[in-house]
Specification:
D-Maltodextrin-Binding Protein, domain 2; 362 residues; three-stranded parallel sheet; 14 helices; alpha/beta
Length: 362
Amino acid sequence: MRPDPDAATPAGGARAARGLAAALLAALLLAALLAAAFPATPARAEGLLGEIRARGHLTCGSSPGVAGFGVPDSKGEWRGLDIDFCRALAAAIFDDPGKVRFVPLAAPARFTALQSGEIDVLARNTTWTLARDTSAKLNFPAINFYDGQGFLVRKDRGIAHVEGLDRATICLQQGTTTELNLADWFRTRGLTYKVVAFATAEETGRAYDSGRCDAYSTDKSSLYGERLKMAEPEAHAVLPETISKEPFSPVVRQGDDQWRDIVAWTHYAMLDAEEAGIGQENVEAMRRDALSPDVRRILGLEGKYGEALGLTNDWAYRIIRHVGNYGEAYARNLGDGTPLKIPRGLNALWNKGGLQYGPPIR
């Protein structure tokens, strides 16, 4: 290749500089045109969040039917605490709680569906354990319900405490933490029992109600709902003892910190809103008149905390407007005004004797 004879001259150098400047200007103009054609989404809008936005809806793995947590009503509309959580996620992302598709999953299939990408988030009374957190390659972003394993028995058996189940036959569902909890509890007390296991909660409940076993063991929150399905609900009682810790959390795949943060902070925003006294009925007035810095940050009036998640800055306001705070969701699905009437207990706010505690939005 022959050298350009003009390149070494002053005139040639000037022409080369002008050419480079023109090329840089053209590149900048092209970048500006592309930015105008494809407006930037909020910060960190990559990974699964980007896929969900492009798809136009969230896919949520739900229970096939646990009263108070996830069950279709008479019109086929899904209801429950976990259902409201998924709707809150959709509200935060799309400003529309309806942009979510529910995939009912039995316990044995739930983690496979999440790991394979069939669902974006699993929200169906799932216990956070070390093994699931590590070997299953899953993340548990936030505990949205504190539960524990219990027992449902027939009142006419005269069993007042769990110790009375020595040598009993116990019905339970496969693919849960229930069986290991039973083994640990009975072994440490020198008691014996026999397990009759079934694939689904529906099968387990039917077997117990038909008299195939002396007790039905699962999470206490589920037992309240299962009792309502019995032929004679008032003939059954939940024993007072709780034999395990069952911290329920929504579940996501490992490897996407942004999505984990969004799932966690959706729950925390609902807790912070309850603590600050912000609910569906007053959220508009609070947003209009708020003077408290905490309230203003929650409602997106100060700071850019939504952008830090890859969302709009009014993300928490969207959640509260469409779904409500945590206390409202609890009351709607599990509280005194429902057939379940499950006390808040450990699920009360931290400043009211419970364990639910939302880190500050700041």
